[in-house]
Design goal:
Layout lengths: L33 E5 L5 E5 L5 E4 L2 E4 L10 E4 L5 E5 L3 H7 L9 H10 L7 E5 L5 H10 L4 E6 L2 H15 L6 E5 L2 H7 L7 E7 L7 H7 E11 L2 H14 L6 E4 L5 E4 L2 E4 L9 E6 L39
Parallel strand pairs: 7-8, 7-10, 8-9, 10-11
Antiparallel strand pairs: 1-2, 1-6, 3-4, 5-6, 11-15, 12-15, 13-14
The structure holds S-adenosylmethionine.
Amino acid sequence: MGWDPAGNWACGGSNVSRSDLSGVRTGPLAEGEWVTLTDPKGKMHSVRLQAGKSFHTTKGGIALDDLIGGPDGVVVTSVGGMQFLAMRPLMADFTVTMPRGAAIVYPKEAGQIVMAADIFPGARVLEAGVGSGALSLSLLRAIGPTGRLWSYERRDDFATIARRNVETWLGTEHPAWEVRVGDLVESLAASPEDPAEVDRAILDMLAPWDCIDAVGERLVPGGVLLIYVATATQLGRVMDQIRVHQGFTEPAATETIVRNWHAEGLAIRPAHGASSHTGFLVTARRLAPGVTSPLRKRRPAPGAYGPDYTGPRPPWVEPAVSDG
Ligand SMILES: C[S@@+](CC[C@H](N)C(=O)[O-])C[C@H]1O[C@@H](n2cnc3c(N)ncnc32)[C@H](O)[C@@H]1O
């Protein structure tokens, strides 16, 4: 998938947008839509359907007119006799191939986030940063037409890429999605009542610990805070900062590992190629105003907050004793 030389992603045709704002297209393939052509070796090519044009392969061209007006999921043959499977991309296919500004949340985590953060139809969700808009796509689908999503991004150029990606996928603007350019904490401070409260908050940024107080002020009691971090050092810091806040439940951390398998006759084994690390998910729930989390009875692991530890120090942890 990619943008054409004029920088357009326009997906023409009468079947491009649905009232559910899912971005899913059904019915006959229409001119202007993108399809994925998969060759016999499994290599995928993204092609925009344009009347009178051909897609060129090493085995001759494929007339795109052969696809326009026909069903999804067909086999087309190039002039030189090579067969290609033609299908509309799924949202996950689009997400991993769309233009990027910042690194994206991959579909394996996006799926987890929707469940772990309990994103529901009609939910009011705050998100930062928006980056390339990959996670925004999943959040928008989960909240549906009746939800609201406020996405904060401090880089204007990334916000533009994200808006274009989401609009391309949906085929239209999402009426309940607002991208706000600016630092999250500063933006929230500048608009105390907008949004006045949110049901869920999702952070994917370099220093999420700096935003926990500000986000905690907008999150409803029982609301879910979910933070995606890439590194173990970020994970440790964000977990302890949530504990320091005391207005959240004990945070939980997970890593999502998805392993593909090869299963053919008696050759049944994990697929070749390692699945590399992407990130960690940290979740915690907001307590009611004025309520602080009960002090933990369990003692921290020996040395967890020893003299070498310089991060946020939860209130039940004894002050560091210096050597001197
Ligand atoms: C890894 S990217 C987010 C990717 C996004 N979740 C996606 O799936 O496409 C992190 C983004 O957070 C933005 N960011 C970092 N700190 C921020 C802050 N304090 N306020 C707003 N945006 C911030 C960065 O500019 C960057 O675009």
